[in-house]
Each structure stands twice: as C-alpha cells, then as structure tokens.
Amino acid sequence: MNRREVLKLAGASAVAGMAAGSRIGFAADQPTMVIVHKISGIPWVNLMASGVKKAGQDFGINASLIGPTVADPAQQAKLIEDTIAQKVNFLGVVPLDVNVCAPLLQRAHEAGIKILTLEGQAQVGRDWDVAMADPQTYGEAQMKKLGELTGGKGEYVVIVGGLTTPLHKAWADFAVAYQEKHFPDLKQATERFGMAESTDDTQAAVLDILKAHPNVNGFIIEASPGPIGAGNALRQLKNTKVNVIGSCVPGQAQALLKAGYIKECVLWSPIESGYAMVAVASLMLKGPLNDGPIQIPGIGDATVEGAQKIIQLNRLLEITTANMDQYIAQGL
Predict the structure, then answer these.
(1) Band (27; pLDDT cuts 50, 70, 90)
(2) Is residue 238 within 8 Å of 256, Cβ to Cβ?
(3) What would the pLDDT profile of 218-265 be if each residue is shown by its tens digit?
(4) CB atoms closer than 10 angstroms to residue 4
(5) What is the mean pLDDT of residues 145-153?
C-alpha cells in the first residue's frame, strides 16, 4: 500500500469516527438512518445534510449524513461498512461506483437494514431509489440550453464527477444523445473527463482543454464543484464566450453567473433531496409502498414505480441570473 492509499484510508476512518461519535446518545426507541454521500464538506452536501437533519427532527428519526474526504469509492466503501456495523435501521447511499457498493448492500440486507439510494437507479441491492428528477429530462435540459446558447454549432466537452458515477453518466449520455439528434453541427471535442467533484481539478482541466481545443464553446459539467472550477478558469481567461452549463448551487455560483462565466445551473434542491430520503424512510416504517401516486411528506407529489424500485419526483430547477435571487433567498 502506497502513502497516498494510506492517507485515503486514514481520512475515511477519521470521517467515520467523527460520524459515529455524533450518533452517540441517540434515543434507544428511535429508528436510525445514516446517508453515505460521495464526498463531504462541499456546499451541495452541506445543504443536503441540513435537509436530512430537519427531516429527522420532523419524523422522529435519528438521521445523519456523512461522506469521505475525497470522492473515492474505497473511502465510501469504508464508511458504508462502518455504518452497517452500527446496525442502523436505514442506510442511504449516493453511490460513487455501483460495482463497489453492490456487495456491501447485500451485507446490509442480510443484517436487516433497509437501503435507499439517491442518484442510484443503476445500483443493485437497494430497496428504493429516490429520484429527484428524471435523468433523461435532466440531461436533455442541459443540452437544450447549450444548444440555444451556441446556436447549435461548435464544440463542447462533458465533465462528470467521476467516470463510474452512475447518474452523472446517465445525464451525460442523455445530453449527448439529444445533441446528436437535434444539434448535429455541435460536436464533442474529446472524450468526457471525470474530475468535477474537485473545483481545482476542473479549473485546471478547463484551462488545458481550451488550450488544446480552441474551438470549444461549451461545457456540460455534472457535480456541483465542477462548474465553479470551470467558471474560475473562464474568469482567469476573461472569457465569457464559452458557455458553462452545470449542476451547481446558485449561492455558490452567483458571482460567476452574474459575470457570465457560468450561464445556467441545472439542479434539484439538495436540501429537498436530504429531506426526501428521510421522509421516504418514515413512510417505509408505516408499511410497504404501493405502485402509483404518493405524497412525500414535506415535499409533494411523487410516483412509486415498484418494478424499477424508483420513487420518482419532478423537482428539476434551471437557474440563471433572471431567477437566482429567489432561490438564494430560499437557502440555495
């Protein structure tokens, strides 16, 4: 094991230890839920954690959210293992790598733990995936905006949080499929990149891409730190002609939106996603979920799709300078 691997595992263990310590003192008669995210400490995940905390208070569930120090499947796996060992009632996962997570979720089921995922429709072993927006609608919304801004011409690059991150892959695939059908004169300049969970890495990548591919006039970026990094790169270059569309939090992106370095944030509310996962757990405590329309307490309408094990909501937000202030005022 090299020094980098040791540091990664040490970081994961530290986060797991802090999370475990925070759960000491939970009421013995309350159900417990831990959501293991892809990463910790970034604004998106902090907002989601606030939704988890609020829902836990509302529904009488001791709910918390943890994540690794970097978006690394091995770190996430360690946190999932530690959570299973704590014998929680519900395990939530935002998977980084479905293949890494699958055997762990099997172990969780064998331990009697119910499993919910977010961004995990491709994840084997879950009870339900809480889908805040339809993946096809999400990916196509990004490409429609990029096509509008570029006039359907030029070159673009897709950057995802990680090449194994399942929902990022789906959004990107749907965006590219829409481009190929509706914007044939808009071409991918290169294969997609996988570092958008890091602001700094995305900034460096965008600078390198624009140097190597000067005809690029657009980026679609999945994972909320990525558009910030891309916007910072364009600000460094004083370039507002390149169009960045991505999954970003408006409160974090507002300066770059106003200056034109990011053109649009496509997202759902991370606060709502955290709240929704705990709310669904509260419904599962009352009995099985049946196919058809359902009300998610505190959120609204959803549809239970039993065959696919999906609870489908439609909470897609498209945020530009025209409407960002209202969402920032709501805490985003």
Answers:
(1) low
(2) no
(3) 999 999 999 999 999 999 999 999 999 999 999 999 999 999 999 999
(4) 8
(5) 98
Q: Give me the phi and psi of 23, to 5 degrees please.
A: -95, -5
β-pair type (300-305, 90-93): unpaired
Q: Is 139 helix (H, G, I), strand (E, B) or coil?
A: helix
Alpha-carbon distance of 141 to 137, in angstroms, equals 6
Structure tokens at 23: 């759960």
CATH of domain 3-131+270-314: 3.40.50.2300
Domain ranges, ordered by start, for the chain: 3-131+270-314, 135-267
Question: What is d(CA 237, CA 234) in angstroms, rounded to the nearest whole number?
Answer: 5
Residue among 103, 14, 165, 41 nearest 115 (CA): 103
User: What pLDDT sits at residue 13?
Assistant: 37
Are 196 and 161 spatial neighbours (Cβ–Cβ below 8 Å)? Answer: yes
DSSP-assigned letter for residue 193: B
Above 90 in pLDDT, residue 112?
yes
The CATH code belonging to domain 135-267 is 3.40.50.2300
